[in-house]
Amino acid sequence: MNLRLHIWRQAGPNDTGMLKTYDVANVSEHMSFLEMLDVLNEDLIAKGEIPVAFDHDCREGICGTCGMVINGRPHGPVARTTACQLHMRTFKDGDEIYIEPWRAKAFPVLRDLVVDRGSFDRIIQTGGFVSVNTGNAQDGNAIPISKPDADRAMDAAACIGCGACVAACPNSSAMLFTAAKVGHLASLPQGQAERSSRAMNMVLQMDAEGFGSCTNHYECEAACPKGISAEFIAQMNRDFISTTFGGKA
Amino acid sequence: MELNTGIPSGPIQQRWDKHRADLKLVNPANKRKFTVIVVGTGLAGASSAATLAELGYNVHAFTYHDSARRAHSIAAQGGINAAKNYQNDGDSVWRLFYDTVKGGDFRARESNVYRLAQVSVNIIDQCVAQGVPFAREYGGYLSNRSFGGAQVSRTFYAKGQTGQQLLLGAYQALMRQVGLGKVKLHNKQEMMDLIVVDGRARGIVTRDMVTGAVRSHMADAVILATGGYGNVFYLSTNAKACNVTATYRAHKRGALFANPCYTQIHPTCIPQSGDYQSKLTLMSESLRNDGRIWVPKNKGDQRSPDQIPESDRDYYLERKYPSFGNLSPRDIASRAAKEVCDEGRGVGPGGLGVYLDFSDSIRRLGEKAIADRYGNLFEMYERITGENPYKVPMRIYPAVHYTMGGLWVDYNLMSNVPGLFVLGEANFSDHGANRLGASALMQGLADGYFVIPYTIGGYFAQGGLAGVSSDSSEAQAAVKEAEQKISTLLSIGGKRSPTSFHRELGKIMWDKCGMARNEAGLKEALTRIPELREEFWQNLVVPGSGAELNQSLELGLRVADFLEFAELMCYDALQRNESCGGHFREEYQTEDGEAKRNDDDYCYVAAWEHTGVGKTPTLHKESLSFENVQLATRSYK
Ligand SMILES: Cc1cc2nc3c(=O)[nH]c(=O)nc-3n(C[C@H](O)[C@H](O)[C@H](O)COP(=O)(O)OP(=O)(O)OC[C@H]3O[C@@H](n4cnc5c(N)ncnc54)[C@H](O)[C@@H]3O)c2cc1C
Ligand code: SF4
Ligand code: FES
User: Of the four, A16, A21, B101, B472, which is 20 to 30 A from B571 by CA?
Assistant: First the structure.
C-alpha cells in the first residue's frame, strides 16, 4: 500500500518544530508500524536527508520505550497495543497518518518523536519502592499472600512506564502511572509500612514535575496499552486523603 | 598469560562460605571513599548498583536507555529458577547445580555454578520482600512451574512477565538509592571505552546521547553489566539496542573474551516475514507440548497446509527422534528445522519456516482447552502475523536468543584487568555451552545482589589504588580516540546506511556461524567479514552531526564494533573442533546427528586476547575439571 505520513520534525529541544509530509510506497501489511518508519528512514538516508528520530527498543510491547501519537491517539488506533506492536494491516492504501510526539510539559521533546520522560523516574524515586536492603529478607513463603491480592498487585505492576496515559489526558496528568505503582505496593503486605508516605510523596512529586491534576476524564485508561484500571486512581486518592488528614492509610 | 581463577579449595559445598570468610573487609566508614562505576541497569547492573550503594559505596550507574527500567531484562517471559524445594519434589542446591552443569554440556566452571545454586534461594526471598508479585497458589504460597532440562518444578514466575517484574524490583531498589543521593544515575549515556591506568580499570568514556558530549568518568572500580551480543546476527529476540560495544571495548583494552562462539538459538520464534524485518519474537516453548511440527515431504510444494494430505507431510522431529518427538531439546529442534529449510522444504515467505500445527490437539481436546492453555500466545501470534492459529498452522523458525560467551572472569567475577568486574549475560561464567531456561535471570541477580557486594570489597581492601583524575593522559587519550572515531564515521560520506551493513553482517554470521558451523564456512566468514568492514569504513553514510541526538550515529558506532567482534566469534568456533551445547560443528556429530563432544582435547574455556584489528587473536585456555559431576554424554534420548 501507499501512504502519506505527516510527521512532527523538531531538530532539538529549543527548536519550534513542524509537521512534514512524506510519501511511502509499497508498504507491506505485515510490517509493524515501526518497521514502516524504518523503511522511511532508510529512504531518507539514501536521499541525504536526516531520518526521523523515534524511541523504541524491545518491539514487543514490554519495555515502554516506544511512544507516539498516531492519528490523535497515543500508540495508535488499536486498543491495548503499543506502537511497536501495531501492524500495518490496520491501515489501508491511500491513508494519511499523522505522527506526533507525546505532548506534555513534563515530557519535553528532545528531537522529533523522542521525549524526555525522566519525570517518571523522579516520581518513583520519592517512594515507588519498599525500603528493604539486600540481605534483610525473610523466607519468601513466610507471609502468605492471597491469590487475589497477588493478582491485583500484578495487574497494577504491569505498567510499562510508557507515558501514553499522560499524552492522552487533557490535563497531562500522570495519575494513572503513579497510581499503578502505589496500587501495586498497596496490594501487598510488604508495601504497608510505607503506604501512606508513599502515596503522599509520589503525588507531591508528580505535581512538582508539572503534571496536571486529574479531573476524571479516564482518557488515560482508554489509551493505556496494558489496560491499567483507573480504579487504582481512586484507591490512591483514598490513601492520599487519609494521609493528608493525619491518619494512616 | 596465567589465568588465575581464584577458586577456593575444599569441598564444593563450603567454598563460597570459606571464601567470604577469607575476603578482607572495607571498614563501613571507608566505603564512601570508594567510587564504583556500574555500566548497565538490567538485572545485573541495577541489583549491584543498589546493593553497593546500600553498603555505603559511592556509585555511578550508566545506561543508554532513557530510564533504568528499560533494560533488555524487562523482556524475559518464562521465569527464574531457585532451589527452594517448595514443591517437596526432590529439588536441592545440589540438583540445581547438577542440572546446570549438565545442561551446559560440561563447559562451565563447577565452583561458580555451585555458588549460583546456593544463592538462588536468597534471590527469591529478596524479590518477595521488594514486592515482586510472583504467582501464588490459592493458599497464598508461591507457585512454581517446570522448565526444560529439569525434572523438578523450581521455576518462579510472574505471569508471562517475570523479567519485567524482577527488573522493576531491582529498578525500584536502585531508584531508592538515587533518591537518597547514594547513586548518581546517568541516563542516555553510552559507554564508548574503558580507561585503564597502571594496568587497572579506572574509568569509562561516555557519549551523551542527547548533546553528543564525550567525556570521561573516573572511579576505583568499573562493573560492566551490559548484557549479551546476540544482535551481532542482526535478527534476534534481543531488544534493538543490545550491542557488544562495552565488553568489546574492554576486550580491546586487555580483557579476555571467553567462549564467544557459544550462542543459544531458540527453536520457536515467529519467522521473518520480509526484508524489512527488524527483530524476531519468541513464542513460548511450551507450545510444543500440543503442537506437531511438520513440513511438506516434497520440495517446492506450494499448496496451502490444509490441502497437503498426511501422506505428503513430514513430521520430521517425530520421525527422527521418536522418543522425544516434538519435545526434543532446543538445540536439536533448532538444527532439524534449519536442515529441512535448507533442503528447500521450508514454508512461508522465503521458505524459512516450519509448521507448528494444533489441529490434532484441537480435534482431540477442543478449541476451548487449547485456548485455556495458550490463548495469549495465539493472540500475540495473530497480532504479528495476521493469521489465526486455531485455523491455520503456526509458522515458526529458530532465532538467536542468548549468548553464553562473554568477558572472562575469575571466581570474584573480576576480569583479568584488575578492577574490571563483569556481571550478568556480559560475563561467560555459569552456563557453559548451553543455558537452561530460567537461569539467566537467576544468574544476573545472583551476581548483583549476592556475589559482587562481597568480592568487590575484597579487591578494595587489598589497597594499592592511587588517586586518579580525568586529567590523566590515559583518560584524555581515550576521550580523544572516541571523538576521533565519531568524526571519522560522520565524515565517510558514502552510500550505505549502518543498518544495511548490520543486516549483511548478520546474514554472514547466521549462515556461517549460526546454528551449524563447519570449517569451510567459518573460513569463508573470516574473509568476508574483513571485506565488509573495509567497505564500511569507505562507504558508510551517517547523516547529521555528533553534537546532537543522532540515532544513525549510535547505530554506526555499534555496528563498527560488531564488525570486529564477529571475527572473534568465528575464530572461536573454528578452533573448537567439537560440538557442544549451542556450538554445533557439522564435522563433529554422531551417526544420528547428535553433538559429539571431545573432552580429551576441548574441556577448557577459550579465553581470547586481542592483538589488533584484523589480526589473529591469541588463545588462552582455562582447563575445566569436573570433580563433582561426572563427565558424561548429554543424552535426552
Ligand atoms: C525474549 C527473551 C526472553 C527471555 N526469557 C528469559 C526467561 O524466561 N528466563 C531467564 O532466565 N532468562 C530469559 N532471557 C534471558 C535474560 O533475559 C537475559 O539474559 C538477562 O535479562 C540479561 O540481563 P543483564 O542484566 O545481564 O543485561 P540487560 O538486561 O541486557 O541489560 C544491559 C544493560 O546495559 C546497558 N548497556 C549496554 N551497553 C551499554 C553501553 N555501551 N553504554 C551504556 N549502557 C550500556 C543497557 O542500557 C542495559 O541497561 C530471555 C531473553 C530474551 C531475549
Ligand atoms: S499506566 Fe499505562 S499508559 Fe500510563 S505509563 Fe503505565 S502502561 Fe503506559
Ligand atoms: S519498543 Fe518496547 S514497548 Fe514498544
Answer: B101
Per-residue pLDDT at A247: 54
Whole-model pTM over 0.95 = yes
pLDDT for B169 equals: 98
- Residue B51: list chain A partners with CB under 8 A: 133-134
Partners of B195 in beta bridges? B203
Q: What is the mean pLDDT of chain A?
A: 96
Would the ipTM clear 0.95, i.e. be above it?
yes
Mean pLDDT, chain B, integer: 95
Chain B residues whose beta carbon lies within 8 Å of the beta carbon of residue A51? 543, 551-552
Q: Number of H helices and number of E strands within chain A?
A: 8, 7
Write b or e for each residue in B67-103: b if 16 or more Cβ atoms lie within 10 A of its Cβ, otherwise e. bbbbbbbbbbbbbbbbbbbbeeeebebbbbbbbbbbb
Alpha carbons B452 and B442: distance in angstroms, whole number: 14
For residues B453 and B586, membership in a common domain is answered with: no
List, edge to edge, every strand of the sheet that includes B406-407.
Answer: B406-407, B257-258, B604-609, B618-623
Contact by Cβ (8 Å): A47, A41: no
Quick check: A141 and B541 CB within 8 A? no
pLDDT tens for residues A81-118? 999 999 999 999 999 999 999 999 999 999 999 999 99
For residues A121 and A230, state if they share a domain.
yes
User: How much is the pLDDT for B617?
Assistant: 98
Ligand lying nearest the CA atom of residue B165 = 1
pLDDT attached to residue B499: 98
- pLDDT, mean of residues B263-281: 92
B608 within some domain: no
The band of B637, judged by pLDDT with boundaries at 50, 70 and 90, is: low
The mean-pLDDT minimum among B147-151, B277-281, B296-300 falls in B147-151
Q: Tell me the three cell numbers of residue B414.
A: 573480576
Number of structural domains (chain B) is 3
Same domain (yes/no): A105, A124: no
- Residue A161 near ligand 2, beta carbon < 6 Å: yes
Are B551 and A157 within 8 A, CB to CB?
no
β B58-62/B35-39 pair status: parallel
Q: What is the pLDDT of residue B181?
A: 98
Nearest to B379 by CA among B281, B455, B472: B281
Q: Evaluate: CB of B60 within 6 angstroms of ligand 1.
A: no
Domain edge (last residue) among B359, B381, B401: B401
Establish how many alpha carbons lie within 13 A of residue B525's alpha carbon, considering only the half-sphere containing its beta carbon.
Answer: 30
So what's the pLDDT on residue A249? 46
Domain count, chain A: 2
The answer to whether A121 contacts chain B (CB < 8 Å) is yes
Nearest chain B residue to A64, by CA:
B70
Q: What is the mean pLDDT of residues B75-97?
A: 95
H helices present in B399-548, as ranges:
440-445, 452-461, 473-491, 498-513, 519-539
DSSP for B399-442, please give it: EEEEE--EE---TTSB-SSTTEEE-GGGB--SSTTSPPTT-HHH
A217 inside domain: yes
Distances A154 to A219, B136, B157, B204, B341 between C-alpha atoms, Å: 22, 11, 11, 38, 41
